[in-house]
Amino acid sequence: EEALNEVERLEAQLSLYRPGSEISQLNACAAQQPVRVSPELFSLLKSAKQLSNETDGAFDITIAPLVRCWGFMNGSGKIPDADELAEARNKIGMKLVHLNESDFTVRFERPGVMLDLGAIGKGYAVEKAAEILREAGVTSALIHGGTSTVHAIGQPPDAEYWKVAIETPESSAGVSPACLSDLSSESSESVRRRDACATLLTSIPLRDESLSVSAVWGKSFESNGKNFGHVLDPRSGNPVQNSVLAAVVLPSATETDALSTALLVGGKTGHEKISQLRPGIKTLLITESENGLVTDAHGLDLSCE
């Protein structure tokens, strides 16, 4: 209950869509004057800025104006005109966010800058929940944050690792949600989930590690026979193309959440760099070519055993 309460607390603090959240208040005021934030949020923003630098901007929490421009913030999406896109891109970039460590204040360089922690917040909440469980003496647990992030504490009582399955996507235009299903036991629920994921790409063993998956499914719209997804590249201002699914394994759920997004955005050209960012990092990228899906993995055995 304490761990779940922590997740709810962080949702109330970090959600862009809650008017009373600390992030919403920051977005409303930081272009006019420096805004003091909690040390906890300041530390997360500092980590986000570092991750943005390390990924050459493929991960960027200032993405919100672009999400709004493409109609994905409160709608199903639309193609913006050139002026709208140029205006949104002018408000993107962590260089526009100034962090003052002496007093924990945040200032935006220009009006319209807006932070969205959607690509790091869930992983952060999962990581904080795991810390509470560990402090309480829990040595075996699996914390599942939906279809995007899972964190393994220790190992199952009857196995060496927790096993989490990822389903094989069909195509960038119509993939199914990733089945991050627990295959560690043969309970009726796990069998049901495994049957639902009849075509598995791989089963990833986890012990004191996190796995995050980012993919192009979710909100999308079609125009002139072309599909436009909600995952946007902050560097180009356009929806991600060719990348279909990205997965990252590391001890930190905060980092796997952010880096799986960066890997999906960076695609083939950015995979090598991201695969070397941390010791022991494991990565998976699926892209789409004229001949179908192409799978590229670093440090992962792509089997479903």
Describe the structure.
- The protein is an alpha+beta fold and 305 residues long.
- It is 32% helix and 24% strand.
- It is built from eight helices and 14 strands.
- The protein has helices spanning 2-14, 22-29, 39-54, 64-69, 82-89, 121-135, 188-196, 253-274; strands at 35-36, 97-100, 105-108, 141-145, 149-153, 162-167, 181-182, 200-206, 209-215, 220-223, 226-229, 243-250, 282-289, 292-298.
- Helix 1 (2-14) packs antiparallel against helix 6 (121-135).
Name a few traits of the molecule:
305 residues; alpha+beta; six-stranded antiparallel beta sheet; three-stranded antiparallel beta sheet; 8 helices; 14 strands; globular
What's the structural blueprint in terms of helices and strands?
Elements lengths: L1 H13 L7 H8 L5 E2 L2 H16 L9 H6 L12 H8 L7 E4 L4 E4 L12 H15 L5 E5 L3 E5 L8 E6 L13 E2 L5 H9 L3 E7 L2 E7 L4 E4 L2 E4 L13 E8 L2 H22 L7 E8 L2 E7 L7
Antiparallel strand pairs: 1-3, 2-3, 4-5, 5-9, 6-7, 6-8, 9-12, 10-11, 12-13, 13-14
Helix pairs in contact: 1-6, 6-8
